[in-house]
Design goal:
The complex is a heterodimer of chains A (about 160) and B (about 140). Chain A has about 160 residues and is mostly helical. Chain A contains five helices and three strands. In chain A, helix 1 runs antiparallel to helix 5 and helix 2 packs across helix 5 (about 140-155). In chain B, about 60% of the residues lie in helices and about 0% in strands. Chain B has helices at about 5-35, 65-90, 100-120. In chain B, helix 2 (about 65-90) packs antiparallel against helix 3 (about 100-120). Classes of the chains: A mainly alpha (about 160), B mainly alpha (about 140). Chains A and B meet through helix 3 of A and helix 1 of B.
Amino acid sequence: MGEENVPSSIVQFAQLDSLLNLGRANSLWPMTFGLACCAIEMMCTGGSRYDISRFGAEVFRPSPRQSDVMIVAGTINKKLELAVKTLYDQMPEPKWVIAMGNCAISGGPFKVKENYNVVEGADKLFPVDVYIPGCPPRPEALLEGIMTLEEKITGKRRWPRVDPG
Amino acid sequence: MDQVVLTNIIYVTIFLIGALLFGFGPIIIVKLLSPSSHTRQTAGRAGQLIECGMEPIGSAWIRFGIIYYLYALIFLAFDVDVLFLFPVAVAYNSPELGLQDFYEILLFVAILSLAIVYAWRKGVFTWEKKTYLHQ
């Protein structure tokens, strides 16, 4: 990706912006949009066991014009490339993209010499904010991705970091 | 000017200004605070009407068979029948109802049935695709 022309608002106050960003980070609306098996894990994250609504991101919108986050959950085929790009275009600013799973990061298992039909990573199409590795990532990993995006938006982490050890 | 009238005018003005602020305020605030000048583009398709990513095929102004719509209309005839016969059914066992009331109900149902008879005569109940010009 080349230089990005990120639109900004007309009126800008640092304090007000941080307040707005806090609101945005705590109510990220993802798009109802799944491309492959990672979408199953995304649905699971939306379910009661992992409960994505604890982080304010449960409002999966059926229209790109109402959503903030595009969770690219799965393989992007060449045939779907234009559709995914159109959906990205139709999202209003501010918008963020989470690349979920190895396919959306780099093409994953399809990144081989013989590959002819898979886009090797969502970042070939548009800027990606958070990468979640895994094949597919567990729901906890998606939740961590959402929290990382919140951290990126507000500049500070809302939840304590868990020590994996 | 009378003091009371003046006070009333001031009240109305205050409420009018409040209402205008309530209506236009959010729009202005959103215009000022949201990055709404443009949205980042990859395929230049933000203005596409269909929101599912796919390119729409053809126009939305299409002709489609009207035959099912006629069925919906016939449903209305039965619907009104049922709607008005419920109170009749509730009150029918009352001893005040005589033979004259029975004839009245019969007349009522007969008039409503005319709609069905009309549709029957027009051939609505035979399912055949109507052909139109320009198709």
